[in-house]
Amino acid sequence: MSGCVSTNKPAPKSNPKLPTVKKFKAYPDRNAMALFWKTVPSMSGYYIQRYSFKKHKWIQIATIKDPYKSIYVDTDLKPNTLYKYRIATFNKQGIPSLAVETKSKTLPPISPVIPLEAKPLAKGMVKIIFRPHMNERVKEYEIQRFNDKNAKWELLSILKPRLNVEFIDKNLKDGKIYKYRIIAKSFDNITSYPSKTIVASTYPKPPVVTNVKASVNLPKKIVITFSKVKGAAYYKIYRSLFPKGEFKFYKTTKNTSFTDYIGEDGATFYYKVTAVSPYKTESLLSNSIVVMGETLPKPSKPIVSTNINKNKIEFIFTSPDNRAQKYLIVKVTHLGIFKKKEQKFITEKNSFQDTIDPKKKYTYYIYEVDKYGLISQEPAEINIGD
Fold first, then answer.
1. Residue 9: what pLDDT?
2. pTM of model > 0.85
3. Residue 171's domain spans which residues?
């Protein structure tokens, strides 16, 4: 038909004496209308017009210069829309006959896709499954997600071919409800009505871990304890050197306690604890409380007083931090410029007696030892003799 169609000038005023078209009918498709009529071979051709409801007037859409043609297809139409047409013959001078009208409504769009399942799949993931469209003319599906911020549907993906009916949305926020819809599209670019809105929620984050405590009185280790979070698969321990510093992931535990073996005395660290669900969602680190833990520092230097009587010396010890379980006494006897003799004594009493030679020089180093065996970092130093 394309070689016979022209859309140049509108038809001139009709002549009621010229023969008219008989049996003019319209047969609809979804985006096209096929016009059929009985040919009038005695004329030179046909004018075809379509009524514009928007402009309220007839617009010529085709001039067919072959009287033996009996079909014209109007394309690029909207589905489910009423269209009116009229046709007139014309003679050798281009004078048209009286027009004959017909009307029809284009077919509705493709039926909507039927969703089957929408569920969270893993952390930040939602899976959608829908029924393959029964219309074999469907070539693809548009997957759309509603943008709450912009209040509009946005295209996420296009699935091909017709039997590809699974979509997995990733990198979503935990514990959030998402809305989806599916639109089928045919090979001739006819789109279906949108499917019913599909609602799916990602797995939520576990609640914040509570009652977090860290020890401050244990040697060379810090023990963190906290309350159990229902449904948690395990817990993540974060550690920092500063209370407002960057907390870096440190260790995991399935228990509600964790022992951090530091290996140092008087070391300080800050901790946060989060819960992780079986779906890998994690409670908010930013909302987790900060606790300080500290290993037990070395005992304090003991306070020592002395009583000397001829060749006897008595030491009396006082523990300033009340941690002393015993005392270590290191006795150094100075025998010459470069010669020394060292002896060690341990007592659980608060006093210690020793025999000395008034003619010799001695240095005593006295350390406090606590119940964990920690020794004071600095000793009390007592010098006796010249």
1. 54
2. no
3. 115-201
